[in-house]
């Protein structure tokens, strides 16, 4: 993503704030048969949807949409909470350095390195910067074009930073869920926090923090819960001695198993079986 912005050279064509004269309007629907310019569309209030070449995407507060040129576009309002937005119309080329010389290249596809519509959880700073860009563009004071270009570039980096953090969070959550699945399938084995953390290439302390965030309890608490759940199933569903049940669910000391079972379940393993 960041490699793209090393070469990104934009040219702003227009900046608007929630003005419908750019669209053919039909009730609560904005319609363009064919988009003429690249646009970055940011919703700061309201709800609706964007349909691009027949593919529909929801729009809500904090949504950032990129609209390519020469595409069939429909944007719909939710009548009770209409969309309020900023839109930046722009073009760009990619700069290639050759020693001390540069040349601009036309990209094969004019598309920023994120999805058609991206919901941003924290967009308050983005709204302030969009408003500043709109004012700079509208007032057109000396040097406004260069200032607007810099503000636009910073906006894109802010969006990219948040998407990058979300990708890291998604990756971390997948790693923890992989560990949860591993525990569910290997509860009878020796499971230690350090070895589980190494499986997902995390430090033990950070692994514990992430595990608590995504699962709601510590790794040790979750392992104990899984083992006790399996033990309760075996106590009710088989005639195996308590000591054997303890070993088969991962407790190597039957006395320790009985103490943990009694503490967490409220009765002894034998009393649970006989209840």
UniProtKB/TrEMBL annotation:
Under PANTHER family, the record lists: ARAC-FAMILY TRANSCRIPTIONAL REGULATOR, HTH-TYPE TRANSCRIPTIONAL REGULATOR EXSA
UniProt GO molecular function = DNA-binding transcription factor activity; sequence-specific DNA binding
Domain HTH araC/xylS-type stretches: 177-275
Q: Which SMART domains match?
A: HTH_ARAC
Which protein is depicted? AraC-like DNA-binding protein
Q: Does the keyword Transferase apply?
A: no
A Pfam family reported for this protein in Swiss-Prot or TrEMBL: Cupin_2
């Amino acid at each position: 993503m960041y490699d793209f912005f090393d070469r990104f050279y934009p040219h702003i064509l227009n900046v608007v704030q929630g003005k419908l004269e750019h669209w053919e309007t039909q009730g609560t629907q904005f319609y363009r048969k064919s988009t003429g310019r690249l646009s970055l569309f940011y919703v700061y209030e309201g709800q609706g949807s964007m349909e691009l070449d027949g593919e529909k995407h929801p729009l809500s507060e904090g949504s950032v949409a990129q609209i390519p040129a020469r595409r069939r576009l429909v944007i719909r309002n939710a009548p009770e909470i209409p969309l309020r937005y900023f839109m930046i119309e722009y073009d760009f080329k990619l700069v290639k350095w050759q020693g001390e010389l540069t040349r601009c290249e036309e990209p094969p596809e004019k598309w920023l390195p994120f999805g058609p519509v991206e919901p941003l959880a924290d967009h308050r700073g983005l709204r302030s910067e969009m408003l500043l860009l709109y004012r700079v563009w509208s007032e057109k004071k000396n040097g406004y074009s260069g200032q607007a270009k810099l503000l636009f570039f910073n906006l894109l980096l802010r969006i990219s930073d948040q998407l990058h953090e979300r990708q890291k969070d998604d990756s971390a959550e997948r790693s923890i869920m992989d560990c949860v699945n591993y525990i569910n399938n290997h509860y009878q084995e020796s499971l230690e926090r350090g070895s589980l953390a190494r499986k997902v290439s995390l430090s033990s302390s950070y692994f514990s923090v992430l595990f608590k965030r995504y699962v709601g309890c510590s790794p040790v608490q979750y392992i104990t819960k899984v083992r006790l759940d399996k033990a309760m199933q075996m106590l009710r569903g088989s005639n195996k001695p308590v000591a054997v049940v303890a070993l088969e669910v991962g407790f190597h000391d039957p006395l320790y198993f009985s103490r943990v079972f009694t503490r967490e379940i409220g009765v002894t393993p034998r009393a649970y079986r006989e209840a």
